[in-house]
Amino acid sequence: MRELTQRQKDVATFISTFIKEHNYAPSVRDIADHFQFSVKAAHDHLKALEAKQVIKTKSGISRSIEVIGSEFFPREEMIQIPLIGSIAAGMPLMSEENTEYLLSIPATMLRNTRNTYFALRIRGESMIEEGIYDGDIAILRKCEVADTGDIVAATVGEEEMGITLKLYYPSNGNIELRPANSTMGPIITRSCKIHGKLHLLIRNYA
Amino acid sequence: MRELTQRQKDVATFISTFIKEHNYAPSVRDIADHFQFSVKAAHDHLKALEAKQVIKTKSGISRSIEVIGSEFFPREEMIQIPLIGSIAAGMPLMSEENTEYLLSIPATMLRNTRNTYFALRIRGESMIEEGIYDGDIAILRKCEVADTGDIVAATVGEEEMGITLKLYYPSNGNIELRPANSTMGPIITRSCKIHGKLHLLIRNYA
DNA sequence: TGTTTTACTATACAATTGTTGATGTTCTTT
DNA sequence: AAAGAACATCAACAATTGTATAGTAAAACA
To answer: Any idea where the Peptidase S24/S26A/S26B/S26C domain is (chains A, B) (predicted)?
Structure first.
């Protein structure tokens, strides 16, 4: 298998552009018309591009061309993340009904596509020395365990008390949830529920 | 015109889900098959949903249903923002050829859709006291003027010297570009070129 | 040199798909 | 009670669209 020819790149570019412009994929004839060649030529190009893993099509289904990742046409993989409320403001339930809206984050900015992520709005100044400010949006990876020093979203005691974002420091039996704010003391507890680890922070200036 | 009925919501949800799953819109028959009703029923639903501004279709073009904004199916408007390099690391040119990749940001997180935005990777500790850390990604709105106290990306003198992110403080004839780091001094200059204002900050923990 | 790949033309068939007419039921609103 | 909207069926037509056959020709490769 050789690499893409110029003509194939042109066709792939056209498809990619067409999808962005129209929100649906071109038909074989849309491609043929644009390049002023026959329907078969267009179809052959699609086969070639599919063999070279640039596009994917579903046989028999119209306008089903999908531009997939490749050296020449890197697809921007997006992950949808629900923003499920504010940290330390009641109880942001981990359910889809509580989703304020979905954030789209490029997969390249996250570690692993297969993990589940969720987002919370930061309230308060407890993590200010880590550069996490009131109003910031934290994107967390859902997980139950954390390593020492990780920034985690956790609930201590009753879930209704609300989630806190803190530094995780376990020490012989106890768990210390440290704020990054010298005016505040840590929460020391026997057990807490970890909801996720901080992976991304988004701040809005306006 | 009344609001959406439960059935119409179901149909709209199906379409929305189908598009996410398949990357192409359902045909009229895909909808009919799923709900076990006739093709005409599906088609009528599409007309109703279009009249109610929930979807948009192109007549005669297969699989051209597009779910648009509405009370019940708020469309997440995305803005593509080019990441054009690192701040204070050579010269990140404001051109599309220098785009490392495109970030997708929900429009709701930005002030104005019509503005031009670009992104830069932060290098150095000069804005650490504003909670802006090395490696953070700054999303800026392209503009030439700024207000006192704004965080701006600017170049002083030759453009090749590189862009800096600083606090903007003009004072009778001079322009002071203040770092947010007490160990560093401000840049005081007669003139500088402002490239944009900071609007969004993204930090990756991993 | 021969083989493979690329890049097409022209034509055609069949499946997919959008669209419509005629018609009826149920529910809500006036 | 009347009117309209919503929801539905069956059947049919026409346009769109994917796929294929039968070639031609040039370029790339081994």
So the answer is: 82-198
In a shared domain, residues B181 and B83: yes
User: Does A29 contact strand D, using a CB cutoff of 7 Å?
Assistant: yes
CA B81 to chain centre: 6
Domain membership flag for residue B72: no
How far is it, in rounded angstroms, from Cα B88 to Cα B134? 11
Under the banding of pLDDT at 50, 70 and 90, the label for residue B183 is very high
The reply to whether B49 and B102 lie within a common domain is no
Residues B92 and B124 both lie in one domain: yes
Distance A1 CA to C3 C1' (A): 15
The values of phi and psi at residue A67, to 5°, are -85, 120
Q: What is residue B7's predicted lDDT score, i.e. its pLDDT?
A: 87
pLDDT for A8: 92
Structure confidence at residue B89 (pLDDT): 41
Cβ–Cβ below 8 Å for B24 and A201: no
Smallest Cα–Cα separation from A24: which of A75, A61, A78? A61
Q: Whole-number Å distance, CA B51 to C1' D1? A: 29
- Regarding pTM above 0.85, the answer is no
Q: Which residue in A61, A102, A201 is closest to B203 by CB distance?
A: A201
